[in-house]
Amino acid sequence: MKRLLSLLLCCGATLASALTLPDDRGRPVNLPKSPRRIVSILPSLTEMVCQLDQCQRLVGVDRYSTWPASLSKLPRVGGGLDPNIEAIVALRPDLVLAGTSSRAAERLVALGIPVLALEPKTHADVQRVLGKIGQVLEVPDAQRIWRHIDAGVSAAAQSLPPSVRQVRVYFEVNRGPYGAGEASFIGETLARLGAKNILPASLGPFPKLNPEYIVRANPDVIMIGERNAEGLMQRPGWQNIRAVREGRVCIFPVAESDVLVRPGPRMADGARLMARCLAEKAPGAVKFDQPQGKNAGGKA
Questions:
Q1: pTM for the full model?
Q2: How many angstroms separate the CA atoms of 70 and 73, rounded?
Q3: Which residues, 6 or more positions from 215, have their beta carbon under 8 angstroms from its beta carbon?
């Protein structure tokens, strides 16, 4: 009986033992136990927690975390770049999930709140971060989410006709303009779909561009979110871009744009949206609409 009790105590101590792991800033994060009250201020990390069936641990999120819909009931604590520290502290979290560029990390750590800073920028990053969050939440086989994502991207690629191969694409993530380069998770998805990104990896994942660069590159297809598409036809020189001139512009509504720009569990959905755009707008597609003002190219 004493031996059994000792074994149970030993196993219990193992399950409740403290966890120390490095975050993407290279700093060790010490957790005395698996966190039960989590605040997430990066949407992609929020979505990962929920896809791992641990949404119930979230007690607060940033203003941009909108999926799944159940998050609408949670308190909002600002954004990653303008967090409301007082609101976060008031929620008594035992862990805050944040991006590496968040301005909250140092202050929260100083207040005794652990911060795990993670920054998924590539497919490999998403796989790695899923594993790390799964480890923190004690979720076995968190990589099953990655396998589902990977299979979904492959299926989207297989759905496209050979004519789409090597279509030259510009994907705008922000009206800076900032584009998604080959080195980004968006660029990697485009490559798996067979498209050719006009922004080489040497420019970085999400480079800020000289607008003339896009005009000179003259992409065959442009992908852009509805938030950034206003005034598209009035951009200097854009009327001469082949994609604009021939109506090969996919304007994604807000909900779809959010799916596309978040490196997380919905990346397979994003791949399907990009595949649909390529199937409809690539040169050689059966039908396309001539761009007209704000809604150039129609909604993908």
A1: 0.86
A2: 6
A3: 236, 237, 238, 240, 241
